[in-house]
């Protein structure tokens, strides 16, 4: 179902189970909507045209770009075999690459990156050996697969290839296309490829969560994605993962009501934006580690007092925002942190500083301590701002002290 509607539906269910509801609204990039057709046919006026149907004969792949190639453009296709021959890729610039997945060991990210590196006009991957005979007759039905967009951007010189369409076709549709284009006994067919998508804008995603508080803030997270591949009316997959998470929340709360507070905190989350690149789960974790709202607010206070402040984050988006714009636009917009030095490397964050401030949740603080221990020096002062208890019902400061002694 629609990502927003799903989140609005899920959160009240958590609350009805008497599981405290919390929700997070991270921002996700490059989601798309689509209105697409893909015919193939001869160029002669009045000739037969075969029209392939979206979600029946082919499926758009993660972060596909748009295209408006008409019959009159006569954009050629290049047979890339199974995609393993670099010499074929190097000669395919300006054409639509046609790749057979049979025997291919490379994934979508590598395919899309190669297409960007070699300036292809488009990319078609035909499913020859997956889901065969399982869904639609004897056909091999294609499925949506995500793409590592950061790798693709790197291959494209740092930007998203907005004009590079990428689709997966079924075996039967591929056979028709091959007969018309590569194996024609008469006039060779011509491909028209109209892909109406947007892959370089932003869309908000939602992460509804329920939480059962434990004696310790050490957390166990039970999660599943609630988004689907395409936006549409109603569900377009079976939503079994989300249903399982919600049922576990209901039953575990019943057990807790009988047995008492659990040792650890239990969080039940359903992630949005997972199909397109694990956006929901990564944003949720990142919001609770490093330069989130809490860490940035503390840094801003010390900057105002004239201190030199370094901040460590695991998010490229936050790093770039602080470095280029002097503000954490994702977690604390409208509150400048000019003069703050941001880094994505722990060792750089600790180099040359006197006080190391741990402004992270108690559920992850000991993991963070383990990461910084190799880079600590005798003169460093550790300041712990986390609240709650560490595993074993210890004070967090005691647990940190033990880890430092053991190191």
Produce a short descriptive summary.
It is built from twelve helices and 22 strands. It has helices at 3-16, 86-90, 108-117, 149-155, 171-181, 240-259, 279-287, 293-304, 316-325, 346-350, 362-372, 396-406, and strands spanning 20-24, 27-29, 38-41, 50-52, 58-60, 67-69, 77-79, 96-100, 122-126, 166-169, 190-191, 193-195, 202-204, 207-212, 216-225, 264-271, 310-312, 341-343, 355-358, 381-384, 389-390, 394-395. Strand 9 (122-126), helix 4 and strand 10 form a beta-alpha-beta unit.
Strand portion, in percent?
15-25%
Shape: globular
- Proportion of residues in helical segments: 25-40%
In which order are the strands of the major sheet placed?
A: 5-10-9-8-7
CATH class of the largest domain: Alpha Beta
Give the end-to-end Cα distance, rounded to a whole number of Å: 49 Å
At CATH level 2, the architecture of the largest domain is 3-Layer(bba) Sandwich
Radius of gyration (CA) equals 26 Å
- Structural class call reads alpha/beta
Q: Quick one: how many beta strands?
A: 22
Average pLDDT for all residues? 80
Task: Describe the 3D structure.
This protein is 31% helix and 22% strand. With 407 residues, the chain is of the alpha/beta class. The chain folds into three domains: 3-30 and 202-278, Aminopeptidase; 38-195, Glucose Oxidase, domain 1; 288-406, Rossmann fold. The strands form eight sheets. Strands 5-10-9-8-7 form a five-stranded mixed sheet. A four-stranded mixed sheet has the order 1-14-16-15, with helices on both faces. Strands 4-3-11 form a three-stranded antiparallel sheet, covered by helices on one side. A hairpin with an 8-residue loop joins strand 3 (38-41) and strand 4 (50-52). Helix 3 (108-117) packs parallel to helix 4 (149-155) and helix 11 runs parallel beside helix 12. The chain is globular.
